[in-house]
């Protein structure tokens, strides 16, 4: 009987030691991944306490990513990115910027110039037509509305005159204060379109570069492009959106408050129609289908 008890004790102790070793190895692996991530994204922390805090957040995000990716067939993947040491609340407060508060323009019915268009191909990508500029980063300024508006105009100008020009988000950030636009505290792309059409156009990014902060308006502006106005794609209608995207890039708003958005790896999710059934928090644009 004594011998049997010893055997059971040995098995129990052996199991506990094995579990402890597994946890140690797992923790060590996460620390190594965090250290490599810090190198990859040039992240430095002001103190050991801050580093420990960020490591715990990183661990939580990593576990969520692995759980999601192992959860079955998905239309997109999650992965480590530059936001992987941020909480969801931190990400939303610094990297979104869409203003959903009572803008009647959002739900206004306007004419739709592509209503009778019927020649949409099965596959089309404006990048193949060199109508999309380089990838841009709004940084910690919540002005996605300006980036979305500028990108849509960039594509349209390329289609109309054959010249791709990177346009100034900073000009929109500084000048487009109409209709409730609040600089780095969020805004509406419709107001940005109104500003461009009503104020003789928009300058190039080269002449009016992005600073990640709303500044005093630069009065020396050399406009290189303009628009006559904008139209709304009929809501909740993928066929109408398809017609629009086939003819030009489209500025859209999407719900970016979900956790998946901050840890996206494959951005194919941008290519679907985002309906206004949830509060929207982020602007982007659609360039293919």
UniProtKB/TrEMBL annotation:
GO terms for biological process: proteolysis. InterPro entries: Papain-like_cys_pep_sf, Peptidase_C1A, Peptidase_C1A_C, Peptidase_C1A_papain-like, Prot_inhib_I29. Keywords: Disulfide bond, Hydrolase, Protease, Signal, Thiol protease. Residues 34-91 form the Cathepsin propeptide inhibitor domain. Gene3D superfamilies: Cysteine proteinases. One of its GO terms (molecular function) is cysteine-type peptidase activity. Residues 1-22 form the signal peptide. Pfam families: Inhibitor_I29, Peptidase_C1. It comes from the Eukaryota. Belongs to the peptidase C1 family. This is Cathepsin propeptide inhibitor domain-containing protein. It comes from Gossypium tomentosum.
